[in-house]
Specification:
Length: 107
């Protein structure tokens, strides 16, 4: 596994009173200390070395979170109009079920 994959983290938090799902190579560079405290940023997942799969997993989590109610995220992590959206959606589901069987409880 590449160093970047090992350090890339999925985070969850709150933004404008709504759940927020994100990813960051370095959460300390992406958010200031004040932002981390305000948004209650906490690392949840890590260890995906394929950049497309990383975005697909983020999209899968985002879609699940949206199914429960509004979220603060404005943009998709993986464009549903992309030709390989279905393929990577399936890979994301497989990765989550294999590596984090209770992932829905985290979000």
């Amino acid at each position: 596994m590449e160093l970047r994959a090992a350090l890339t983290q999925f985070t969850k938090g709150t933004k404008l009173g709504l759940p927020y799902i994100g990813k960051a190579f370095n959460v300390f560079k992406r958010y200031t200390k004040a932002e981390r405290a305000l948004m209650k940023i906490e690392p949840v997942l890590n260890g995906i070395d394929d950049p497309k799969l990383l975005r697909a997993v983020e999209q899968k989590v985002l879609e699940y979170s949206k199914s429960k109610g509004p979220v603060a995220n404005i943009r998709n992590a993986f464009n549903p109009k992309c030709p390989d959206y279905a393929e990577y959606g399936a890979k994301a589901s497989q990765w989550l079920e294999k590596n984090v069987p209770h992932w829905k409880e985290l979000f």
